[in-house]
């Protein structure tokens, strides 16, 4: 996800908009790993192309995503993520 944002921001900006967690469901759980399915809501956002200044309104959308958390040294951290558009 971070790589996608980095690639996007080399050419454009997003103005306004917000992200919020709409829903979270545990898909699989063990002592060392948790897999979550989450739905993230992105509100209306203005996309601006840096080179031309062209602006376009991106309507809000719900984005399904998956997170895998792993436990290491009694701390949970994100191991992997994926977005299903």
What does it look like?
With 85 residues, this protein is mainly β. It has one helix spanning 2-9, and strands at 12-15, 19-29, 33-42, 45-49, 55-58, 61-72, 75-83. A hairpin with a 3-residue loop joins strand 2 (19-29) and strand 3. The longest helix is centred in the first third of the chain and has 8 residues, at 2-9. The chain contains 1 helix and 7 strands; from the N terminus they run αβββββββ. 9% of the residues lie in helices and 65% in strands.
Summarize the structure.
By secondary structure, the protein is mainly beta.
Parts with pLDDT < 50 across at least 5 consecutive residues: none
Percentage beta strand: over 45%
Neighbour order of strands in the largest sheet: 2-3-6-7
Mean pLDDT reading: 87
Q: Identify the overall geometry.
A: elongated
Characterize the biggest β-sheet: 4 strands, antiparallel
How far apart lie the N and C ends?
Answer: 12 Å
Order of helices and strands: HEEEEEEE
Secondary-structure map:
Blueprint: H1 2-9, E1 12-15, E2 19-29, E3 33-42, E4 45-49, E5 55-58, E6 61-72, E7 75-83
Antiparallel strand pairs: 1-4, 2-3, 3-6, 4-5, 6-7
Structural descriptors:
7 strands; mainly beta; single chain; 1 helix
